[in-house]
Amino acid sequence: MRASGLLCLLIAAAAYGQSVTYTILARPIIEKRLSLFGTTNSDRQQTLHELFAESGCSGDKLAEQIVKAKRPPNVICFVPGQLDSTIVVGAHFDFVKGGQGVVDNWSGASLLPSLFQSLNAIPRRHTFVFIGFTDEELGLVGSSYFVRGLTKFGLRKIAAMVNMDSLGAGPTRFETDRSDKRLMDSLAAVAATVKLPIGIINAHQVGRSDSDSFQDKKVPSINIHSLSADTFRILHSSRDRIDAIRMDDYYDSYRLITAYLAFLDLTLTVE
User: Fold this and answer.
1) Residues forming a β-bridge with 130
2) Which of its termini does the chain have fewer beta carbons within 10 Å around, N or C?
3) Where are the beta strands (DSSP E) in the chain?
């Protein structure tokens, strides 16, 4: 699969005034990866591993982290950076049976290889760590395990954790109740610049997400989703199928998150 031409976006934020460069993949690539949702969590873990490899993340850049015996592992892809700081991008791949679990959360997990591919075209300042988390639905198992494995110094090196959970049910939205202000302001600025929709809905009323594992350790984090009062009920139900995805909104979310991550790479520092 080929990426489209390299885009150069001038972010019109006077505080930064920097050029943000990234690659946007063609929409059929994003839709095809979304369609590969599988029927078991093990299938999804294996597919995610294969999609990372297909996207160019292989060798020592691609790893699996065993969390529990006989359970699918976390799938981790690294993009080495120039600075001693990290941006973590996460999404869980497991789902609650009853529906197909495409909104919650193959929509987020299947974007991880595409985001890697979009950012990997040029050298990055931060090390990016893309993680497909296992067993979020059993109590944030995969993300909690990953965080527990980090030293205090390792936690301090994380400039941002960007979590994606339940995209494509509508326009891109984010939470404010636990999200870092700097990350929220940056997302709003990027959305305004690239002229893509962004809204605010606090989704904690339907449960915690993997961003909470990082927020509990004071890591600057943000949770990006697409839920509203009308679409909350899709989750954990027979309605969570691929036909619940609004493809225009889903592709907009991919485009926005790509620009956002590239912007964070240029502007964030570890305090």
Assistant:
1) 77, 89
2) C
3) 3-10, 19-25, 62-65, 74-79, 86-92, 127-133, 158-164, 173-174, 199-200, 221-225
**Of 168, 184, 167, nearest in space to 176 by CA:** 184
- Is residue 225 helix, strand or coil? strand
Report pLDDT for 270: 63
Q: What DSSP designation does 105 have?
A: I
Q: Environment class of residue 6 by beta-carbon count within 10 Å: exposed (0-12), middle (13-18) or buried (19+)?
A: exposed
pLDDT band at 16 (very low <50, low <70, confident <90, very high): low
- Give, in order, the Cα–Cα distances in Å from 222 to each of 163, 180, 230: 6, 6, 22
How far apart (Å, rounded) are the C-alpha atoms in residues 264 and 171? 21
Check if the beta carbon of residue 225 is closer than 8 Å to that of residue 175: yes
Q: How many CB atoms lie under 10 A from the CB of residue 241?
A: 15
Considering Cα of 225, then 267, then 123, then 7, what sign does the dihedral take? Answer: positive
Tokens matching residue 92? 């869980």
Q: In this structure, what token pair is assigned to residue 122? A: 């040029």
Domains in the chain: ranges and CATH:
3-267 (3.40.630.10)
Residue (of 96, 113, 149, 89) closest to 36 by Cα position: 113
CB 75 within 8 A of CB 48: yes
* Nearest residue to 221 (alpha-carbon basis) of 139, 149, 165, 138: 165
